[in-house]
Design brief:
- The protein has 167 residues and is mostly helical.
- The chain folds into two domains: 87 residues; 71 residues, no CATH class.
- The protein contains eight helices and no strands.
- α4 packs antiparallel against α5 and α6 packs antiparallel against α7.
- The longest helix has 17 residues.
- The protein starts with 5 loop residues before the first helix and ends with a helix.
Length: 167
C-alpha cells in the first residue's frame, strides 16, 4: 500500500486471507479482508468488492457462522449484479465471472456443511451451476468446482455422487 499501488496491495491481502482460511485461521482472514477492502478504497469496482465478500463469506463458513456467511454472500451477489462493466477491471479481476461467484458460493456452503450438514445440498446446487457456467479452458477452476461438489456430496451423505465428482 505504501508503494502507491493500493489495488495490488488489496490483491495480496485477499490472497493471504485465502491462505489463512486454508491454514485454519479464519478470524485472521476476516481481519485481512477488512484491510483489503479499506485498502482498495471507495473506487474499487463492484465486482472486486463482490470477490472480497466471497472470501469473507468463506471465512465465516469456516467458523460455522451460517447467518454471517449467508448475509455476506448476499452482499456479494448484489455487488456482482450491480457491476455494469463500466471502468477498467484490474488484471487480477479479469477472471472473476459468474462461474467464479457460484464456485465461491459452493465452497462457502460446502465449508459450512462441515458444521451444518443441511448446507450440503445448497453447496451442490451452487457447484453444479459453477460447472455449467465454467469456461472449459479454466481447468484449474473446474477442478476446484469438482472438489467442492464431491465433498458436498460426501458431507450430504451421498458417497456415490461424491465418488463420481471426485473422479
Amino acid at each position: 500500500r505504501e508503494g502507491g499501488d493500493r489495488p495490488r496491495a488489496s490483491e495480496a491481502l485477499s490472497r493471504a486471507a485465502r491462505q489463512k482460511i486454508h491454514l485454519g485461521d479464519p478470524g485472521e482472514a476476516l481481519d485481512l479482508m477488512k484491510l483489503a477492502g479499506s485498502g482498495a478504497g471507495e473506487g474499487a469496482l463492484p465486482r472486486t468488492r463482490a470477490m472480497f465478500r466471497t472470501i469473507e463469506a468463506w471465512a465465516h463458513a469456516s467458523m460455522g457462522h451460517g447467518q454471517a456467511m449467508r448475509r455476506t454472500l448476499g452482499e456479494a451477489e448484489e455487488l456482482f449484479v450491480s457491476d455494469k462493466g463500466v471502468g477498467e477491471h484490474l488484471s487480477w479481476m479479469q477472471m472473476f465471472d459468474e462461474a467464479d461467484l457460484y464456485g465461491m458460493q459452493a465452497l462457502a456452503y460446502r465449508t459450512l456443511a462441515e458444521h451444518d450438514p443441511s448446507a450440503a445440498p445448497v453447496a451442490q446446487a451452487h457447484a453444479k451451476r459453477a460447472l455449467a457456467l465454467r469456461n472449459a479452458e479454466r481447468q484449474r477452476s473446474q477442478i476446484f468446482d469438482h472438489l467442492s461438489m464431491a465433498s458436498a456430496c460426501f458431507l450430504g451423505n451421498d458417497p456415490e455422487q461424491a465418488d463420481f465428482y471426485a473422479r
